[in-house]
Amino acid sequence: MIPIKKAYGYVTRINNGETQVLVFQHPIKEAGIQIPKGTVKPQEDAYQAVIREMKEETGL
Length: 60
Hints:
alpha+beta; 6 strands; globular; two-stranded antiparallel sheet
C-alpha cells in the first residue's frame, strides 16, 4: 500500500494584540471546523501542496 501524504498549514494574524488562527466551517456540516489541509499530489512536495491548499480553501 502506498502511503497518502497530507499537508496542512496555519494562517495567523495579530488582532488587538492577540494571535488569531484562521479556521473555517467545512461545507459538509459533519466535517466540522477545519484548517486548510489536503492531499499532496504526486508532482508536488509538501510545501507546494500546503500553499496550493491554502489558496484553494481560503482564497488568500
